[in-house]
Amino acid sequence: MSDATNQSEPTLVLDDRPSDDSSYRVLARKYRPATFDDLIGQDAMVRTVSNAFETARIPQAWILTGVRGVGKTTTARILARALNYELPDGSITAPAIKMPAIGVHCQAIMESRHIDVIEMDAASHNSVDDVRQINDAIRYAPVSARYKVYILDEVHMLSTQAFNALLKTLEEPPAHAKFIFATTEIRKVPITILSRCQRFDLRRVDAGLLVKHLETIASREAIEVEPEAFALIARAAEGSVRDALSLLDQAIASRVRRSMEPAREQTGGRCGPLPRGPHTTTFPYRSPIQRPAQATGPRSVVAAGAKCSASTHKEG
Predict the structure, then answer these.
(1) How many distinct structural domains can be found in the chain?
(2) pTM of the model
(3) Is residue 277 part of a domain?
(4) Is residue 121 classed exposed, middle or buried when 0-12, 13-18 and 19+ CB atoms within 10 A define those classes?
(5) Which domain holds residue 105?
């Protein structure tokens, strides 16, 4: 798959349900990718997985990491679908990266209700007893699919004992079993687990690509939005597709006229991404008419720290 192909108009899966109030689905769920061609901004991962499938070098476990909303769980389901892709006429007998039509197991897998694709939230099922159930059940062959796939979301939440109980099974699983882990805190996953998995770091989606994605969705929804509003939402989302779609959904619902003002209100008036993380501080937004003496920013913080340090040495 070429980068140019992926960065053109993204292919979207439309929801064929009626658009009445009782069946309304938020944009983030309605346009959730269903194939590797639908994923945006993850070209390196798609290329590697494609080569692995084409050469039949499929590992027993993957671990997907990245910030919220970049497609970790979605990618896990697409992988499970590709592993078990099968058409009713029996023309496909092996895992396939290209899935042009809905296969026998596809709908159930993407809706998280397939009997052979087990999704487990490690945040609420993090004990050694939960992993022991996996170890006991994995020995049995899949009921209808080609592979039995275990998807563990937020895998970093497993306890130390649970990780240790999973090691042997993860290293030498049965031929019919595959593991897919997803986490936002890769540093909390033991190295003994990481060494048994093929790791993919899902990157933040570029703002320009995110704007094109939002434009395509707005066009399909028959909604007119000012280009500046798309840019504002994309910058505020900070590379998260889900955040961008949630902001767009909220901005659409807040005003009849889809201009910059609803988008600016939903994004808190931010003109760009604010620093986030354990070692960064989010400073208040500074308006153009705000006087410099009232602004709080990195320079004032550094100056305050310098004064504090100077006074401490003086007292000493």
Answers:
(1) 2
(2) 0.75
(3) no
(4) middle
(5) 42-201
Indicate if 177 and 218 belong to the same structural domain: no
**Angle subtended at Cα 30 by Cα 28 and Cα 32, rounded to the nearest 5 degrees:** 65
Return the CATH number at 141.
3.40.50.300
Residue position matching structure tokens 């003994």: 192
pLDDT tens digits for range 112-126? 999 999 999 999 999
More confident residue, 6 or 152: 152
